[in-house]
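Worked example (supplementary).
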Amino acid sequence: MRPNNNSSKLALSPLTNEVNQMQSNPQSGSRAAQHASPNRQKPQREFEHVRESMHLAISMNKTEVIDSVLDDFSEGYFSLSYESRWRLLLGLAKEYDLNRTQVRELIKQYLGGEEAQLSGPEEEGLLASFYRIERNLRHALKPKYEALFERLNMHSGGLKFLSILRADILSILAEENIASLRALDSDLKEKLGTWLSPAALELHQITWDDPASLLEKIVAYEAVHPISNLIDLKRRLGVGRRCFGYLHPAIPGEPLIFIEVALLKNVAQTIQEVLWDDPPIPEREATCALFYSISSTQPGLAGINLGKFLIKRVITLVKRDMPHVSTFATLSPIPGYIQWLLSKLASQSKIAEDDMSQSSADRSGSTFQENLLEPEEEKAMMDISEEFAAGKNGMEVMLNLLTSMNQEWSKSAELLSVLRTPLLRLCARYLLQEKKRGKALDSVANFHLQNGAMVERINWMADKSEKGLHQSAGIMVNYVYRLENIEEYAVSYFSSGHIQASDEIRHYVEPMKKPEATTD
Amino acid sequence: MRPNNNSSKLALSPLTNEVNQMQSNPQSGSRAAQHASPNRQKPQREFEHVRESMHLAISMNKTEVIDSVLDDFSEGYFSLSYESRWRLLLGLAKEYDLNRTQVRELIKQYLGGEEAQLSGPEEEGLLASFYRIERNLRHALKPKYEALFERLNMHSGGLKFLSILRADILSILAEENIASLRALDSDLKEKLGTWLSPAALELHQITWDDPASLLEKIVAYEAVHPISNLIDLKRRLGVGRRCFGYLHPAIPGEPLIFIEVALLKNVAQTIQEVLWDDPPIPEREATCALFYSISSTQPGLAGINLGKFLIKRVITLVKRDMPHVSTFATLSPIPGYIQWLLSKLASQSKIAEDDMSQSSADRSGSTFQENLLEPEEEKAMMDISEEFAAGKNGMEVMLNLLTSMNQEWSKSAELLSVLRTPLLRLCARYLLQEKKRGKALDSVANFHLQNGAMVERINWMADKSEKGLHQSAGIMVNYVYRLENIEEYAVSYFSSGHIQASDEIRHYVEPMKKPEATTD
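After joint prediction of all chains, the assembly is encoded as:
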């Protein structure tokens, strides 16, 4: 019943997944499994019980021992259905926010105290009492549910439970935008951000010697290139490969984010080279460390940038062990490309069509009109339209080709040769120019750019898997990290949204400027 | 120049100490040492530089890369004299608290928004905007210096630096009570409390195989029974001994608190048995785990109860490895006993004297008057007064004996036999009945009682070291932890201040009630 926890590509049933998540607390695990049995009785009474333990967890005097209450609450929570969780969380957001009567009373005191403080001389006694009022007001403005979050943070296993709570909250908010719950979410997100400080995260090299319970998590959460079996996993942890994860001491045995690295002679152009280069090259011959997969494991930590220091720390570590590795690059998916392109093609071909149907005097009047295709691309597209896909203009032909059954276009040499140029060119445009709130529209691009990378190269037919064709017409991108420029690039991306790119890729979108001969 | 950092009993020069504390950041360590050289030039310019970097660290846009600014600030801070740090911290407290104009403006919006929200129907859009104002007000009420604390918390080495900052703040506040600085301290303390969540602390068994840099810290910070040399240290980590520390991942290589354990046949009555039982008994014969020393290493974490779960976790660990160990007890100092007793004796003997000098009709009129001695003790004291120490009454004789040069009383068999009964009896009273805000007056007693221990036994001449005689007339106390009662005792101590004690020790203060024969 926890829909937002299915980021894993391997089929783990929701229940298995849930039990996994509770392994840090084996006692509660067994009890929850019991509760979760389909023959559960009296769900309403159970709901009331959980609500009561939640209330105790918030309102008990803080000097009392509340460990057992918190255990009780989290165990009970796991036994609830998705609908009951929804009710419970909504109740938490609405009934445990502020005591607004108290806030108003303190505001009155505050305004009075401020006057006294501003008019009178700096008297320590007066100041102390003013600071006290200010502090009381600050505390009164803290929603009561913060007590629950703070107590769980101090409680063994509580941080993991908070991340599960937040995953549920996000999944509710995705269905319905509820102001009070959104306020609660932004509060919880802020707290989780400081509690999961990067300074407390431990970089751990994951190897075949690690416990199966940890490796199982890697298999379950690898979101980019699914791990097909144990042999595949062993290869990814073996010679010529590295895997690093960030662990937090309060969430043991489960990396919050992990990164897979291949040691290669050159920056790979296709994912096949990386996943199936058997046998790998001897490590002493490697000059490139290629980051080919980064996955975060906790949907409840969405929006908290845990990866910020990960790449920098991994680079430092690899460089220390292997000084002969001089290039640090990624081979990354472009998850939003085709979705963006299809919507662009649909709207523009529609505008072009409308335009054509008008009298010649009105033509090209739309300010939004733009032919996404260059003249020679338009011509090539129309040339093949009769045989392969109908369309009144090049863009519509391209749209129809790309949305045809089973990615038929990718199996025809002729279609590939016609589509290659516009697909690559528009991909460069998508990566370098399409923005949202001043940041790269593509989420993976945004991740690497804010970490200080540059866009180096796009690669044709780099990922021929169904997912790769579907997301990005099989195109993948290399981002490159230059240690000496990481800070500078990150700052300029943050402050002005400037995207660093190689001349080669810039050439796609600025046809006037030829790439220099010396570009490597 | 960091006076509050001398908790260590071994002579580390302040400079060495400071450099030690910076070892997590070797780069800054060397630069700081350089700055700290006595030939430093232009301290004023340096002060301005540090203040500037502090300002940047607080006010830079949060998306910019501030790591180098934070490094700059902490390096600069270490180069400052104690006086400059005082000025800087005072400036931080006064100039970086709130923007009160903004607070007032938001209060106005808040009161308006609240009215609209309370009168109108539950409309999500209106609610959302109200929550936003509420959140803005909450944020505006956060002092600006919180940004510095939060950024340091996220920064590598920052948590350690914050604990040094707070140690300096506490030492300033001990000299002068400044309202704004006290407000800053309470804010910082609250933050440190949540960032150093017990759930993130790692229990580590410290052994002779640990790095010298860590063992060095144990030697430096052992505050109860100083470690005299490497052989002494090796013994405390060897057969029949255990040492456990709490480490936080953001403060690597340095336990925040550590506890030393001796495995014994019986609960030790003197510290000499523990420190010099050479050779120790075979571990399989042990039935008692004795906690004989608990030291915290960070003066800047004062008031944050890091020990809360330590003892419970250590007991669980020892029990798992050695099921035959059934008794968990301490042999603890009573640091405040003699100080309390001397002040009591001085005031009461003064009152008694004044009373004697009044006419007989007025005698015993003072409601505060109390003879601390029983009649037979009073008599014994007066009997020896001629030979050993003058005094108009028993209390004054006792006071003079206890304050005589070089603890002469402890070297005379006759004096020991006279002092023994009243010293033990009054010690039991001090431990069981003397309170401050409902908690045990003695700090070590308070620590163990809030952890769920009971007062089991007091031991005569248990620590004959100069410090032991000085603090508690050589008396030490055994607190006992009974796993099955820990929770219950902690709750009852917290809620009502009730102190659990054995019949044996209660007998000292309730002479009517005889101890039962079966008490062990």
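Two points are worth noting when inspecting this output. Chain B is about 50% helix and 10% strand. The first strand of chain B starts at residue 202 and ends at 205.
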